[in-house]
Amino acid sequence: MLAEQEALIRAGCFLGILILMASWEVYAPRRKLTISKWLRWRNNLSLTVLNTILIRLAFPVAGTGMAVYAASNQWGLFNQLELPAWLMVGLSLVLLDLVIYGQHLVMHSYAPLWRLHRVHHADLDIDVTTGARFHPLEMLLSMLVKFCAILLFGVSAWGVLLFEIILNAMAMFNHSNIRLPGAIDRRLRILIVTPDMHRVHHSTVPHEMHSNFGFNLAIWDRIFGTYRAQPQAGHIGMTIGLAEWRDPGLCSRLANILMMPFRR
Questions:
Q1: Which stretches of 110-205 are DSSP H helices?
Q2: Does residue 249 sit in helix, strand or coil?
Q3: Which of 129, 172, 180, 203 supports an S-S bond with 208, CB 3.0-4.6 Å?
Q4: Contact call for residues 70 and 151 (beta carbons, < 8 A)
């Protein structure tokens, strides 16, 4: 039953968080946007819809369905252990988050994968829609990685659903163009990735771009030495995007976004 309702639950959470963060961006923006918001939103959200359709066609069995299948066959670490349900879900959230951190790091480390991932970085502004701007091929690859992690760890269906909701919500939160008081930001980033922390990752400066890979928990960047506190030009003065891709039409229109991995 849970697997059948996953799409509806996730869609409702996505729309709720999108509306909340978009409203926050209007009320308390962190940076002034540099190009047309209508142009970016129209194409970024169109890409999100396209990705959702393709994922459903390519993987009729969603993550929760894969978790149910693994449990019925006693596959994975947690299906071999007798752990309380709350502990198994908690450990699943932490381990899956580590997997996503590792995947993100690898996407930056190998040229063929970077060609896919640079679609995300080529956005010339960063706001809530950037959190869902990924090339369809990267989305398919990411789903395969999650399936492997679900089978390896034996994550429960509830663990998968909670992780997907949290991951999507956090991606929209930490990509949002919102202003947080400095004291609150410093406290929050002890545990989770804040917008100011992740914005550094979208800098055109290479050593800043290749830092702060976390999407949810902030501990991985500190543990593995990829943490950078602030951009050297400051959050107002920093340039967002890729130094070699600065044309708004090339970086923001859907057809060009889809072709970006195949362009020099």
A1: 111-121, 136-153, 157-175, 182-188, 195-199
A2: helix
A3: 203
A4: yes
The phi, psi pair for 99, rounded to 5°, reads -60, -45
- Which domain range does residue 152 map to? 2-262
Number of other residues whose CB lies within 10 A of the CB of residue 261: 18
H-type alpha helices, 28-156 = 37-58, 63-72, 85-109, 111-121, 136-153
Task: Return the structure tokens found at 18.
Answer: 């999108």
Q: Tokens for 43, please give them.
A: 């194409």
Q: Please state, in angstroms and rounded to a whole number, the distance separating the CA atoms of residues 36 and 41.
A: 9
Write out 181-228 in H/E/C secondary structure: CHHHHHHHCCCECCHHHHHHHHECCHHHHCCCCCCCECHHHHHCCCCC
CA distances from 209 to 88, 200, 232 (A): 34, 7, 12
- Cβ–Cβ < 8 Å for 57, 142: no
The whole model's pTM is what? 0.94
- Along the chain (264 residues), what's the average pLDDT of each consecutive run of 10 residues? 71 93 97 94 97 91 88 92 90 96 98 97 98 97 96 93 94 97 96 98 98 97 97 97 94 96 88
Burial (CB count within 10 angstroms: exposed 0-12, middle 13-18, buried 19+), residue 52: middle
